[in-house]
Structures are given as C-alpha cells and as structure tokens.
Design brief:
Layout lengths: L1 H7 L10 H13 L14 H7 L11 H4 L12
C-alpha cells in the first residue's frame, strides 16, 4: 500500500502522473518492470493520450470499443 500512496498522492498530470502512468509507476516499484515504457514522453494532454491509443483527439467517442469501455492502449494509429 505504501507504493500506491507514494505514486498516487500527487497531482494529476497527463503523461506524467495520470491514471495509466501512476498505476504503471506502482507496478514498476513492486515488480521492476515499467508497462508504460513505450508511452513515456509520448503525450502531455488528454487529446494526445487518446491519439496514442488510436482513438483520435475526441477520445473514446470516436471508437465503439472505447464507448464499451474497451480502451486498449498500444501504438496508436493517430500518431
């Protein structure tokens, strides 16, 4: 629980301490592997995060999988 509190008590900042990066920081602290490594430094805004995930700047509303809650980040099609 200390690892969770350490990494999740700061302010929300896209690409630095957002929902995905903070969870990945905890995972890395506990397991030594950074699941966000390929995405680190690739976005600094909400629109950038959505583009990286392949949903376009408008977010999940552009993609049926996003509307269904099926967000699956990987190298996005939107750049």
């Amino acid at each position: 629980m200390d690892a969770v509190l350490t990494h999740m008590r700061g302010p929300f900042v896209w690409g630095a301490s957002d929902c995905c990066t903070s969870a990945s920081d905890v995972f890395q602290a506990l397991h030594g592997v950074d699941p966000m490594a390929p995405l680190r430094g690739q976005y600094t805004t909400e629109a950038g995060a959505w583009r990286w995930c392949g949903f376009g700047a408008a977010g999940a509303h552009d993609n049926p999988a996003g509307r269904a809650g099926g967000l699956s980040c990987g190298r996005g099609r939107g750049g």
